[in-house]
């Protein structure tokens, strides 16, 4: 089957956009073909997030992630899936400078990964860029509130909207990205009533992470909800304990190798 036929069968950007106020949108991150194949059966969209720099590569923030790294993981996730919309994060430094630079890099991501949309961080300040991309055929998911690529300016990963005086600026960010043509917006790391208020204020679906159950959808980092990360922010609900499962498996394998209990008759060639 041609990859073009497969692309058409996936959940589309307009289908996600129409879910505003409807059944909540399910999404998770994936960075890897085989885990993405499992997520693909349940998620409406899969985000190849730049959090992969921290989760897969042990970086301290997402600032060091390159365009090539995003493309490499994006290709793996597209290959491993057939149903969900695949959204790839634009990494720090690949879109902020100008709309033209953002278009060039977003187009490269789309051509080389065959993903269906890109995501970039920033509200009102990125509105011109979001418009430039969407008018030229690149669907954009926006991302406001706690924007990890700005953590050096914010002084860390800080929950937003604790001071009610800042709410209007966040609302303005949400309105600006909507007006600019974003098909959805991630609300990350903000107090619950602010996320609920933004969700009511804009016509595009809001996707919450550390935000509110009122959002039009939710996203989590897959490894966080699987219990694979030693640290988890308060907003993570851990649904599985893969860390301890991996530890137990590796421990038993090491014991078997040392005692020559592995390999057995079943695992050798005669
Ligand atoms: N594995 C992983 N999961 C994520 O959700 C995630 C990443 N990586 N990398 C990129 C960003 C960074 N994120 C983070 C990282 C830390 C906190 C954190 O420590 N939060 C504090 C609260 C801080 C405050 O109240 O201001 C917490 O205790 O939950 C939050 C979001 C979310 N994103
Ligand atoms: C946490 C989500 C929204 C993200 O941007 C990422 O995983 O990089
Ligand atoms: Mg990200």
UniProtKB/TrEMBL annotation:
<keyword id="KW-0489">Methyltransferase</keyword>
<keyword id="KW-0963">Cytoplasm</keyword>
<comment type="similarity">
    <text>Belongs to the PanB family.</text>
</comment>
<feature type="binding site">
    <location>
        <position position="119"/>
    </location>
    <ligand>
        <name>3-methyl-2-oxobutanoate</name>
    </ligand>
</feature>
<dbReference type="GO" id="GO:0000287">
    <property type="term" value="F:magnesium ion binding"/>
</dbReference>
<keyword id="KW-0808">Transferase</keyword>
<feature type="binding site">
    <location>
        <position position="89"/>
    </location>
    <ligand>
        <name>3-methyl-2-oxobutanoate</name>
    </ligand>
</feature>
<comment type="function">
    <text>Catalyzes the reversible reaction in which hydroxymethyl group from 5,10-methylenetetrahydrofolate is transferred onto alpha-ketoisovalerate to form ketopantoate.</text>
</comment>
<feature type="binding site">
    <location>
        <position position="50"/>
    </location>
    <ligand>
        <name>Mg(2+)</name>
    </ligand>
</feature>
<dbReference type="InterPro" id="IPR040442">
    <property type="entry name" value="Pyrv_kinase-like_dom_sf"/>
</dbReference>
<dbReference type="GO" id="GO:0008168">
    <property type="term" value="F:methyltransferase activity"/>
</dbReference>
<dbReference type="GO" id="GO:0032259">
    <property type="term" value="P:methylation"/>
</dbReference>
<dbReference type="InterPro" id="IPR015813">
    <property type="entry name" value="Pyrv/PenolPyrv_kinase-like_dom"/>
</dbReference>
<protein>
    <recommendedName>
        <fullName>3-methyl-2-oxobutanoate hydroxymethyltransferase</fullName>
        <ecNumber>2.1.2.11</ecNumber>
    </recommendedName>
</protein>
<dbReference type="InterPro" id="IPR003700">
    <property type="entry name" value="Pantoate_hydroxy_MeTrfase"/>
</dbReference>
<feature type="binding site">
    <location>
        <position position="89"/>
    </location>
    <ligand>
        <name>Mg(2+)</name>
    </ligand>
</feature>
<feature type="binding site">
    <location>
        <position position="121"/>
    </location>
    <ligand>
        <name>Mg(2+)</name>
    </ligand>
</feature>
<dbReference type="GO" id="GO:0005737">
    <property type="term" value="C:cytoplasm"/>
</dbReference>
<keyword id="KW-0460">Magnesium</keyword>
<dbReference type="GO" id="GO:0015940">
    <property type="term" value="P:pantothenate biosynthetic process"/>
</dbReference>
<comment type="pathway">
    <text>Cofactor biosynthesis; (R)-pantothenate biosynthesis; (R)-pantoate from 3-methyl-2-oxobutanoate: step 1/2.</text>
</comment>
<feature type="active site" description="Proton acceptor">
    <location>
        <position position="188"/>
    </location>
</feature>
<dbReference type="Pfam" id="PF02548">
    <property type="entry name" value="Pantoate_transf"/>
</dbReference>
<keyword id="KW-0566">Pantothenate biosynthesis</keyword>
<dbReference type="GO" id="GO:0003864">
    <property type="term" value="F:3-methyl-2-oxobutanoate hydroxymethyltransferase activity"/>
</dbReference>
<comment type="subunit">
    <text>Homodecamer; pentamer of dimers.</text>
</comment>
<keyword id="KW-0479">Metal-binding</keyword>
<feature type="binding site">
    <location>
        <begin position="50"/>
        <end position="51"/>
    </location>
    <ligand>
        <name>3-methyl-2-oxobutanoate</name>
    </ligand>
</feature>
